[in-house]
Amino acid sequence: MTQELSKLESLTGEQLSARAWDIALNILILPGLGAATGDSEDEIAQSKGRMIVLQDAYSTRCSVQE
Fold first, then answer.
1. What pLDDT, in 10s, does the model give residues 4-26?
2. Is residue 6 helix, strand or coil?
3. What average pLDDT does the structure give for the chain?
4. Domain limits for position 15
5. How many domains does the chain have?
6. What span, in angstroms and rounded, lies between the C-alpha atoms of 39 and 15?
7. Neighbours of 65 (CB within 10 A)
8. Is there a contact between 6 and 52 (Cβ–Cβ < 8 Å)?
């Protein structure tokens, strides 16, 4: 879970950087050019999905069953 958290933090940082470049490219150089850069959207969604699965598995294994 710690590994997935660090991966998610890294991807989020990359996404913020990519979006900042998108804004700069759209405003300063050529409108629409920012769309050519990727912002890790799919990777972040997959990472969040894995985090949910890990949390569910942890809850299931660690919950007190009556």
1. 778 888 888 888 887 887 777 77
2. helix
3. 77
4. 2-62
5. 1
6. 5
7. 4
8. no
